Amino acid sequence: MILVTGGSGFIGSYVVSLLHKCGYEVRNIDAKIPKEGARGSFVKGSILDKKAISRAMKGCSAVLHLAAQVDVQASIKNPSHDFKTNALGTLLLLEEARKNHVEKFIYASSAAVYGMPSSLPISESHSTSPISPYGISKLTGEKYTVLYSSLYSMDTTALRLFNVYGEGQNPKSPYSGVITKFSSRIGNGLPPVIFGDGRQTRDFVHVSDVANAFFLALKSKRGNGSVVNIGTGKETTLNELANVMIELSGKKLRPIYKEAREGDIKRSVADISKAGKLLGFKPKVSLREGLSSLMP
Fold first, then answer.
1. Does the annotation count 134 as an active-site position?
2. Whole-model pTM?
3. SS3 per-residue string spanning the chain
4. What is the pLDDT of residues 69-107, one digit of tens each?
5. Domain chopping of the chain, boundaries
6. What is the CATH number of domain 2-165+204-233+267-283?
7. Fewer CB within 10 A of the terminal residue: the chain, N end or C end?
8. What pLDDT, on the 0 to 100 scale, is given for residue 35?
């Protein structure tokens, strides 16, 4: 039995679906009820609820931990809640996993742990200097995950996810990616809004590739105690992104430019060579292919 925390969420639901397709028994623990038709057993509860965690963990051989508070702005407004969910919640899960002799623990970390990049592409050896409470809490959870590998001989891996996108991401969510926001506006006949000059870059990775990364980490015997970037290794400007999405829509629109947002990271792209070596990870969905499925 594989336990997926946050299995009702955007990425988590893809992970649950892939595991089922590959023949695994899956249990999902989430505060939110999964979508109709979701397979596997479900435990409704928070990762801060020790009783719910204990109930969900019984009989599980591995944990894929995706449940988190993922709103950067919310973390700034309420860093205490953010820390409890992301850092303390991860520690509680690790402890319950240790008590239940869970063999494997895969943690969803974030590129937010790097902060402002000083060099590109960003490798796992790059310094970690988060610029938000969210980044700090994810880094703390990551460090606990790695520590449990050396301290308690638990097989753990932390996956640092870059800009994940795909079908099912809520455009109304305050933390949804720029792709989802662009798609929503273009679908309504409105031009995409770009803050700054549009030359900012991101590494956009499709959610199905991210789900596969979790699957590969689950099977791999080489990732123990490691942190691994998950992206595409390809840098895309927001101008390029907007133009491709408008082209795919077939609509005659031009981006609107607004004042740059303070603290916005100028460039970001992952070095994914380690993911290839340790996990056999290779992204399969091109940006154009992934975007075409999102456009109305």
1. yes
2. 0.96
3. CEEEECCCCHHHHHHHHHHHHCCCCEEEEECCCCCCCCCCEEEECCCCCHHHHHHHHCCCCEEEECCCCCCHHHHHHCHHHHHHHHHHHHHHHHHHHHHCCCCEEEEEEEHHHCCCCCCCCECCCCCCCCCCHHHHHHHHHHHHHHHHHHHHCCEEEEEEECEEECCCCCCCCCCCCHHHHHHHHHHCCCCCEEECCCCCEECEEEHHHHHHHHHHHHHCCCCCCEEEEECCCCCEEHHHHHHHHHHHHCCCCCCEEECCCCCCCCCCCECCHHHHHHHCCCCCCCHHHHHHCCCC
4. 998 889 999 999 999 999 999 999 999 999 999 999 999
5. 2-165+204-233+267-283
6. 3.40.50.720
7. C
8. 85
